[in-house]
Each structure stands twice: as C-alpha cells, then as structure tokens.
Amino acid sequence: MTVSLPQARAQRIPALLAPVLLWQLFEVCAYGLLALPVLTATSDSGIGHFPEPARLLFSDGGLWLLELIHQQRAQLLAGFAGRGWLLSLVICAELVPEWWLLRTLALRRNGAAQPARLVLPRLGLLTLALWLLRGLSLLPVLLLGLLQPGFSVRFDARVLDLALLCAFGLWLLLQLLLSVARDLVAVRTVFAPGSLRKLLRRTLETLSARGGRLTLRYGAYRALALATVLGGELLLLALPGAALALAGAGFIVHQLALFARLMLRGLWLSDLAEREPA
Amino acid sequence: MSIWRQRSRARAHEVALALLLLGSCAGPELPAPGPTPVDDLPRSTPPVASYTLRAELDAAAHVIHGSGEIHWVNSSAVPVQELYLHLYLNAFEGPHTLLYRDPARRARGGAVSRRWGHIQIERIVARQLADADLLPALEPHSPGDPQDGTDRRLPLPQPIAPGAALTLDVRWTSVLPELSIRTGFVGEFHFAGQWFPKLARLEPDGQWAHFAFDPLSEFYSDYGDYDVTLDVPEQMVVGATGHLNSESRAPGRRALRYQADSVHDFAWTAWPRFRQREERIAGIDVHLLYPPGYEHDADVTVDVLRLALPHYGARYGSYPYADLTVVHPPAEALEAGGMEYPALITTGGLWHESYWSRAVEYVTVHELGHQWFYGLLASNERRWPFLDEGLNSYAESVALREFFGTTASATPLGLQLSGEALRRYVMLSRSASLPIALGATEYRSMRDVGSIVYQRTALLFQTLANVYGEALVAEGLRRYAVRQRFGHPTPDDLLAALAETLPPAALDNTRKALFEGHGVNYVLSKLETTALEGGLVESRVSVKRDGELQFPVLLALRTAAGEQLTERWDSAETAHVFRHRGQSPIVSAWVDPNAAVLLDDNLLDNAASDQTRLPLVPSERSLAALQWLGGLLAP
Questions:
Q1: Contact A157 B595 (CB under 8 A)
Q2: Domain for residue B335, yes or no?
Q3: Checking DSSP bridges between strand B224-233 and strand B49-58, what pairing results, if any?
Q4: Which of A276, B80, B83, B89 has the lowest tally of Cβ within 10 angstroms?
Q5: Which 8-state DSSP code applies to residue B600?
C-alpha cells in the first residue's frame, strides 16, 4: 500500500506526542522559573488590593500597567539581571528534550540510537557553531547599516528600505540554510555513528543535492510556527476582555501555540529522519 | 485692536466665567467653554528688532554668504551703551563649545558633527553713529567663556536713547555644519536655523537677556519684521518663515524674497528633492514640503492640521500670519525634525510610520502648538522653559484627546497606551523634587527637562483640569494667551490669568508645584473592622497624604454586601480616618479611584482590601514572551 506524504506525517504524530509534551513541560517549567520576578513584582506592587486588578492592569490607556512597571522597575531589573545565567542554562538545556525527540525518532525508525554521552556534547558543539556562523553572517548587515546615510541621500527612502528588506530576506534565507545544515547534522548524530568530518561531508553533499528544497520546506515549517504564535496573539486581541483580564485564557492560548510550534519542529525533524538510510 | 475693545471683551468673559464658577457648585465637571471671540485679536505688533537680509547659498560648499541691515529700536526705559549679538552658529564650531562640551547635557539629536560650522562677521557698521565700524569692538567670545563664541558683547561708541533707533549694516559668512541639533546639511539637504547675527532681547528695565547657546535651552528674542531674500541654486525647493513675496531668476540661480512681520526668528530649508503641496486651511496658506515617497505622511499631516489649526485658534487666539510652512525632512536628516520656528515647523518620522503609528500627527500637533506657546507668547525659554514646552505639552494633550480620544497614543502589542500614562511614566522616571519653573540650565540633563518641564507641567495642568474642571483651566489659559499675545510673558502673567478662573486652593497647588517642587502621594494606609453590639460592625478606613500639594479627592468604598459608597476628602489635613457603621463591613477602599491626581507619586498604594487578588496575567504574558524568545534563540 502506498502512503501519501501528509498521511505519513499524520501517522508520525502519535509517536511525537510524548517527546513534544515532555519538551513543552520543560519549557513551561524552565521559562516559568525565569518569569518568577514578574510574579513577585506583581505580588509586591499592591495591585492585588484593587478591585478586579487584572482588568485594571490591562484597561485601555495602560496607566496602571505602566505604573506597576515603574514602581517595581528596580525589583524587576534586579530579578532579571540575576537570571541571565539561568536563561543561558535553559537555552543549553533545550538540547535535552530535542535529543529525546530525536532519540524517539531513531528508535522508531532503526530500533537503536546513539548513546546520550556521545550525542549531547556533539549537539552542544553543533549549536555553538551555528550561533557563531549566525554572528558572522550579521557582519555584512551591520556594514550595510553603517553605509545607509550615504545611500539614502541619493535614493527614495522607500527604494532603500526595499533594498534593505531584500537584503534581510537573503539573510533570513541564509539563516534557514544554516538551520537546515545544523538539523541534518543533529539527526545524523543521533541516528548513526561516525566521525564528525564524515558527518559534515555527508551534510554538505545533501545540501548541494537538495539544499534548496530542504530550505524551502524548513522555511514553510518556521512560517507555520510563526503563524501559530501570531494566530494566538490575534485571538487574544480579538477577545481583549476575556484574554487580557482573565488569568488562564491567555495561558491556554499561548501554550496551545507553543504545542503547535514544538509539534511542527518534531514533524520537521521526523521528515529529515525519514530520509536517513535505515 | 483698541484697548477699549480688549477691556469690554474681558468684562464679558468675567461674566461668563462667573456663570461657569456658579455651575461648578453643581458637580465636578463643567461644560466646555463656548466659542470665544478670538478672531479680532491683533495680527501684528510694533517691531523692535527687524532684519532685511540677503542670503546666498553656496550649496556645494554648504556656506551662506549674508548681508543686510538690522533695524533696532531701544524699547527700554534707559539709554543703551552696548548690544549683545547671538551668533549661535558658532555653537557648532567644535566639541569645545557650550553646546557640545558636556555629553551628559547634550540632547536634541546632539550627535557630534563630522563637519563643524561657524558664523564669521565681516562687517558691522552703525548708520546712526556716523557709520561707525563696530567690528573691532565685538568681543571675541561669550562672557566668561573663551571656549564659546555664541553670545557676543558689542559696545557702542555712544548710547542709544530710549525710543531711538539704530540701523546696523552687516555682512557675514555662515558655514553650515553637517546636520546636528537641527542645524546644517546632509548631502543636498540644508536646514538653516540660527544662521544670521541676531540681537539678544533687551528687557524693559534695560538689561539684555543674553545667553550662550546651551544644550538645554532654546531661544528668546524681540519681535520684528523680517524681509529676507534667499538666493539659491535654481533646482532648490525652498521653504521659509513668512510669505513668498517675489521670485526672480538669474542663470542657474533663483532669488526668493520672503516677508514675515511680527515674528522673532527666521528659518529656512532648501533641498532639490522636496515635493510640495499647497493647502488652504482655516484661511491660512499651508506650504508642505516632504521627501519623495512621503505622500501618505503629507496626507496625514494635512488632515491633522485641519483639526489643529482651528482648535488652537479657538482656544488661544487665531493664528495671525497668512502662511505656515511645514517641513518633513528626509530620512537622512531626521535630526532636523520636530522643531518650531515662527510660521515654520518641522515634523519627522520615516515614510512608513504614518501607516502604523500616530507619530506624525503627534509631532505636528506639538510643533504647531509652539506657534502659540513660543511664537505668539515669546517667553524667555532659557529662564522659564515650562512656559513654552510645558504649557505646549498640555495644550498638545488636550488637542490630541479631542482629535483621537483618550487611549490612542500608542498601541504596542495591542495595548492602548494613553498620552497621560506615557507622560506619567516619563515624569516618574526622574526626581520629583525639582521645581517645574527652574531655568533650563538649572537642570542636569535633557532627561530632567523632558521629565519635569514637558511632562510634569502637562500633568500638573491635567490634574488641575481633572480636579477643578477642565473649563476653568481652559479659560485661564485662554486669558493668558490672549492678553500676552505678541508679548514676553513671565510665570506671574500666567498665574495672574489662572487666578481669575481657578479657586485659591488650585492656585496654591500650582505655585507649590511650579516654584517649590512639591508633590503629593495619597496612601490608603489601613482598613480595619471591629464588631459592635447588635450585629453591627464598624469599619475604619485610614487615608493619608504625603507631600505639600492638597487636592480634594474621592474615596470609593465597597461593603461585603456589595454596596458602593463614595466619600469626599479635601485632604487639608495630612491624615484622616473614615468610619462606617452598618451590618456589612467595608471590604475594599480606594482613594482617588479615577486617578484624577496624575501628580500622585504612587498610585499603587491608593487601595486596600480585606483580601488580595493577585493578577496572574502579567506573569503569564511574561512566560509567553520568554517562550517566544526561547523559540527564536533555539536552532
């Protein structure tokens, strides 16, 4: 029996559910810890003594929200300043749920996966290398920014902005390509043993053969993920009274959007995994 | 207009005001004042310092070669033995000048220029003094400051008697700096502000109000008639103060003659790529200059001018000039934006901003307001900057609220932020202990000026309007604006006008806030209930007032049975306990529930309740934002 691509993806979703939910649980807990200063500042602000404080905070005009931010500014800054390390730790620790998801895919496909002690350091290095490359790719953009005044004297501001937008689009495409390369190496790191050099060579071969198609596909996944986040925000904006003032409504919408984002990431990685030799 | 007509109209307004004050006994809000007969106000004033100038722009070298005459009348009561010339373009001479040398105080787009500028006087001759050459006597630098050449004393060989005139023949060269602090050039764009030798203002007591160009201060000058011919390359599109009287052409050049009577400064701009739009709004010829691609900004600007010109005219007296030039600088010259000159304002922003924000409208309304609070009420901006920037900020708030409602200042992430909320946030960011009515140079930084002069003044007047009635404040400001039209008002003139419309307590608060830096903080300090006999309870609500300002406030109370009660507290004493006996205890109390007192140092200590309901929404939104950030940073 032949199975179409959408059907194949649908069949993979149940297998992805557990690692994706685990990933989401990790995100809620880790980022919840990071958001703790906001909870403390809100609690200490005195806003809880006012009738319907949530509605007051998000009432039109923003007087009370800005008041809270101002009065608790020192506390908020102190709270977040001490949490830079925690944010770094959380971002690094994100590798664990990702690895768990890749491992699930590998076990499902091959019945075996590389051990964590080999995989996790490589994934860490890989992510570091990715950010290094991303940083380097920013340099031409910064240079372009520095040159802007000279350019804009001669051109219509809209033409210049359009050119900048095109440059930004190209830069984004490059970022997508970098992400695809990173994910290809990540999947292969979990799926099959081999030296890093071999992995990189195979990845370059894959990219030269079908890098364009993969980048477009990855772009589609990222666009869908962005659409879920924006869709959630639009939903909240459409229901300002309920969403902004009632605790819980916003949380549910945001976590649903996050779930969709993580599930899309899982589907993308499983797409890559499906192309790996069994 | 004759003195008699002024007096008879003032009497009519006093009667109207008495009726308004009687009406105020019935409730806190009064109807807005009816139409005010402000159309017959004077449109000119006798000139004191007039300038007939010719300026030739060398667009390639960014240099202006100027010549002409300054006609000055000693309007003081004493003979004058010296003049003071403000050569403010010398502020752009280098990093050593008063304008640039202290980076902490630099503001208003004060990036260090890559090409400095200056003004060089080449000839200055006094006609009535036997054509005496005054140039050798011109002091080389500002008094007591060898590093600054912006404020220069010019001794006269013989005194000028009160009422006598002096004509100075002048010739000079102005080298424009690369655009910085709203002056200079970028590419072919030129903006000429403070570009000619200008006399300081002589006060009636014979003292010169002269000062070097300070980064925290603006200007102060006498009214006069300006007749300025601008000789520019023929491809240049020009905008300037006043009315374009005539235009002549020579090979490769155009000479444009502008005339502006009863103004106290003259600015102009030239750029070959300006688009032009001509509109007639409220009887005024509006000349709009904007870069290519800014057509939508131009539409938005014209739309808001259609609202703002009649609005300001009705409230503070009609705009007296036939022309208004509005300049939207190009993107690379944003530093030239957001500035006011007589009959010429600059707006700002990028081409797309008008599609998603109201920045263009806000800047336009603010700068247009300066045609009154600076243009027609030419107060000393160095000594009392609140009289122009502060009052104008309040006037701008009132206008924007009328045009766009109360909640539409900015909408980040779907939140509607009001102008008052944003002003309050900025105000609270700096120390409240500094008085509003300080001199510009007495503040430490532009942030202090922004927080106190702009925002605290606006919020003081908004508080007065909220507490005592907007109509009374509006009438007080209208009287001030009408009486001081074409004048050089002081805070006393403002207070005298407000004293006629506001109750004494309001005026006392105004004085304390303006001159003594006093503030206020209302606190709901305690809410307690004790059981009495017969199933009754007594609730005691303790409120206190910290600070010297005393505004009457409301106290909103709610019982456990859901009954809503309202008390009034005049806050004459620093603390008060409200007692309530009944079957149901007070469970929640809130002093100033409408946040009428926008000067309150902390609104979050204004309530108390028997239980705390912690809102989780901010934490939830922060969690979502952090998760979104994590998603961006993740591979």
A1: no
A2: no
A3: parallel
A4: A276
A5: B
Q: Which domain holds residue B202?
A: 48-222
pLDDT, tens digit (0-9, with 9 covering 90-100), for B94-125: 999 999 988 776 665 556 667 999 999 999 99
Check whether residue B526 and residue B443 sit in a common domain: no
Closest Cα in chain B to A259: B627
Together in a domain, B464 and B529: no
Asked if A45 and B604 come within 8 Å (Cβ–Cβ), the reply is yes
Identify residue B561 by its one-letter amino acid code.
Answer: A
Residues of B in Cβ contact (< 8 Å) with A127: 635
Report CA B19 to chain centroid distance, whole Å. Answer: 31
Which amino acid, B324?
L
**Minimal Cβ distance to A63: which of B186, B420, B602:** B420
Give pTM, 2 decimals.
0.88
The nearest CA of chain A is from the CA of B189 a distance in Å of 9
- CATH number of domain containing B597: 2.60.40
Number of Cβ atoms within 10 Å of the Cβ of B126: 20
pLDDT at A242 over 60: no
Contact A62 B595 (CB under 8 A): no
Residue B252: how many CB atoms within 10 A of its CB?
A: 8
B407 lies in some domain: yes
Q: Are residues B542 and B471 in the same domain?
A: no
- Closest Cα of chain A to B187: distance in Å? 6
Question: Which of B622, B629, B632, B633 has the highest number of chain A CBs within 10 A, making it the mutation to test binding with A?
Answer: B622
Q: Say what the ipTM of the complex is.
A: 0.87
The structure tokens listed for A35 are 């958001």
Question: Does B455 map to a domain?
Answer: yes
Number of domains in chain B: 3
Give chain A positions within 8 Å (CB) of B293. 156-159
pLDDT tens, position by position, A8-61: 667 778 889 999 999 999 999 999 999 999 999 999 999 999 998 988 888 878
pLDDT reading at B9 higher than 50: no
Question: Average pLDDT over chain B, rounded to whole?
Answer: 90
- What is the identity of the amino acid at B268? W
Beta bridge partners of B253: B233, B250
Instruction: Give yes or no: residues B8 and B80 share one domain.
Output: no
Contact yes or no for B192/B269 (Cβ under 8 A): yes
Question: Residues B420, B551: one domain?
Answer: no
